[in-house]
Amino acid sequence: MSTSNRKYKDSVFVDRQRLYIRVQSLTSSFEQSSKHRNAGTPAIRGGYIV
Question: What is the superkingdom listed in this entry's lineage (predicted)?
Answer without folding.
Answer: Bacteria
